[in-house]
Amino acid sequence: MTEQLTRETVEPVVERAAFDAKGLLPAIIQEESTRDVLMMGWMDAEALRRTLTEGRVTFWSRSRQEYWRKGDTSGHAQFVRSAALDCDGDTLLVTVEQIGAACHTGEHACFDVDPLVPVTGSSSIGSPHV
After folding, report:
1. Is 90 exceeded by the pLDDT of residue 46?
2. Alpha helices, H only, 1-130
3. Are 110 and 41 in contact (CB under 8 A)?
4. How do residues 58-93 score in pLDDT, each as one tens digit?
C-alpha cells in the first residue's frame, strides 16, 4: 500500500485484521527512534480505523469499555509513524513518535517495570547459558 489510508480507504485493512472472539486485536507499540517496544494495547475495529486514519494511537479500554487516545489526559502522546499487520493479521505493530512516558506508571516503557532474568538459549549445541 503506497497511499495514506483515509476513512474511505481503510475498510479493506480492517477486514483483513483477524480480531479475537471479543472483537479485539493486540497492538504492539514501538518507538521509532530507539526501536524499543513500549507497550501493548487492545484495539477493536473502530480503534484500528482511528489509529490508521488520524495519526494518533487509539485503544479500546477493556476495563472502562471506552476508547482512549494515548496522551489525551497525560500529555504522553503517541504519533503514528508506520503500521503493519503481521503475517496472520492477528497482531498490529505501530511505530510511533513517543512524547513522554508510554507506561501509565510513568516508566518509559511498560516492559521496563518488571524485567525478568530467564535462562537464555544458544544457537550452538550445548546447555543453556545462565
Report:
1. yes
2. 11-16, 45-54
3. no
4. 999 999 999 999 889 899 999 999 999 999 999 999
Q: Quote the pLDDT of residue 115.
A: 87
Residue 110, C-alpha cell as written in the block: 511498560
pLDDT tens per residue across span 26-44: 999 999 999 999 999 999 9
Q: Which contacts (CB < 8 Å, 24+ apart) does range 80-85 have? A: 80/51, 80/52, 80/55, 80/56, 81/32, 82/32, 83/51, 83/52, 85/13, 85/16, 85/17
Closest to 14 in 3D by CA, of 81, 89, 94, 93:
89
How far is 124 from 114, CA to CA, in rounded Å? 29
**Rounded distance, CA 126 to CA 72, Å?**
51
Biggest CA pair distance of the chain: 55
Residue closest to 55 by CA, chosen among 26, 113, 117, 97: 97
State the DSSP code for 121.
P
pLDDT score at 127: 60
The answer to whether residues 42 and 23 touch, using CB atoms and an 8 Å cutoff, is: no
